[in-house]
Structures are given as C-alpha cells and as structure tokens.
Design brief:
- This protein is of the alpha/beta class and 257 residues long.
- The chain contains ten helices and ten strands.
- The strands form two sheets. It has a five-stranded mixed sheet, sandwiched between helices. It has a five-stranded mixed sheet with strand order 7-6-8-5-9, sandwiched between helices.
- Helix 2 links the parallel strand 1 and strand 2.
- The protein starts with a helix and ends with a helix.
C-alpha cells in the first residue's frame, strides 16, 4: 500500500513539474504590433477571427516596420509582431526578443497610384516624368519595406534621377494614401491599400498599375512571437488563424501573394 502511495506521489510530482515546464497559457489580451500595410486587411481578419473566438482579446498597434522593431528593441512589451519584411523579425529573434525564428505569413505586391490618367496603362512608370505630376509620395525607405521596394523600382527602371526632385517621404504607407487622395500625389502603395480607397479611385490602368515584380526584391512579410506571446492563448489562436486556409484566403483577397 505504501509502495502504491509513493508511486502515486511520484507521478503527481512529475505531472506538476511537466505542467510548470510547459506553462499555463495566459488569457490576457494579445498585444500585436503590425506593419502599416496590415491596417487594410486586419479589420476583416479580426472580424472573422472573433467569429470563431468571441472570447478572444486583441490589442493592435500599427506603424512602420522599422519603428515597431525599434520599440521592441527598446523594451516595449508585445506578444506578436507582423512585419512587412523578414529582416526585422530575424533581428528580433537573434537579439533573443522572440521565442522562435520568423515565419513568412504573406508576400506583398507593390502598385503605383497616380491622379486619374487614361494613358497610365500604356506609359506605366514613365508617367512619373510628366510635368502634371508634382509630387511622388513614398513611405520612408529606411523604416518601411514598401518604401524600400519603391526606391528599388525607380532605380531599376532608370527613373530615380529623373524624378528624385518630386519624391517626398512619409512616415508610413497610410500617409501615402492621404497624399494621393487629398493632394493628387502619385504614390507607391501596397496592393492591399486599394480596399481603403474611394470607389472612383480603383480603376486599373487609369488610377493604378501593378509594378513588375522583377523591379524589386520580393516583399516577404514575417511574424515572430515573444516569449510571453507563445504563452498567451489569444496570440496563439490568432497566429493559428492567420495560417489557416481561411486566414490565407483573406490575405489573398487583399492582394497578397
């Protein structure tokens, strides 16, 4: 009898140790840092997610990938970081501020938006040299991967020097949208941004064109989870949803590869 009781205590002790090693998932709201281009797809993504998990809680902070990464390096608390590139998540992982290596969750598509012009589909990027286009707004190429891709596009098209005086940089892709809608700027955007533009601004070949992907390095977008994030049930469920068939379909619907 004593032997049986001792065995029971040993099993119980082992179970407790195992549980402590694994850790109990927290139900605290998941703190999510998301690159600016995600601002257009996230409302739908979160709506569908909440339909499956109505008890879940997500808190989202949007910003340029480089700025959000800087916040993390400076000690900002986060559970999940969805960047617009793979480089910043990799740096975060190497600095031991992420629990695992980054995973690619989407591949971005770059478009050019201009004030309505029926010759856009023919002239394409050459239209940027037109005198009627006074400004070209680009997200800051030092902090925003879509801005970096925009500069690569102009350089690889041998247009950068010709239009350099027209370029004005914005903090992130959201400001680009403001400038193209309200100030008639030309601008480089993520294709997902089309969903946020007024109906009359969405005519392909007149308002916008998709940029030849050979002109810029692939915009591979990666995510990482913090050491607290992997123990947060809301963060874990949201990541699972992003990589589910439904989550991937939503990103595809919003112009991502």
């Amino acid at each position: 009898m004593k032997r049986c009781f001792s065995a029971f205590l040993l099993i119980l002790f082992a179970s407790v140790v195992s549980a402590n090693q694994v850790g109990v998932l927290s139900k605290s709201p998941a703190i999510i840092f998301a690159s600016g281009n995600n601002k257009f797809v996230f409302p739908v993504l979160m709506e569908r997610f909440y339909m499956k998990h109505p008890e879940a809680k997500l808190i989202v902070k949007y910003g340029a990938t480089g700025d959000l990464a800087a916040d993390i390096f400076e000690g900002a608390s986060y559970d999940l970081f969805l960047a617009a590139d793979m480089e910043h998540p990799q740096m975060i992982f190497k600095s031991a501020k992420a629990a695992a290596m980054p995973r690619e969750y989407a591949r971005g598509v770059l478009i050019l938006f201009v004030p309505a012009d029926k010759t856009l589909h023919q002239r394409k990027l050459e239209i940027l040299k037109d005198k009627k286009i006074k400004n070209i707004t680009i997200a800051n190429h030092q902090t925003a991967p879509y801005g970096k891709a925009s500069i690569e596009t102009l350089q690889n098209s041998n247009l950068f020097e010709a239009v350099a005086s027209k370029i004005r940089y914005s903090s992130d892709i959201s400001t680009v949208i403001t400038n193209v809608v309200w100030y008639d700027d030309a601008g480089f955007l993520s294709k997902s941004a089309l969903h946020s533009l007024p109906a009359g601004y969405k005519v392909e070949g007149v308002n916008w064109i998709e940029i030849d992907p050979s002109l810029y390095a692939p915009i591979r977008q990666g995510l990482v989870m913090s050491h607290t994030g992997v123990k947060n049930s809301n963060a874990v469920k949201f990541v699972d949803f992003i990589f589910s068939e439904e989550g991937k379909a939503i990103y595809k619907e919003y112009g991502y590869k």
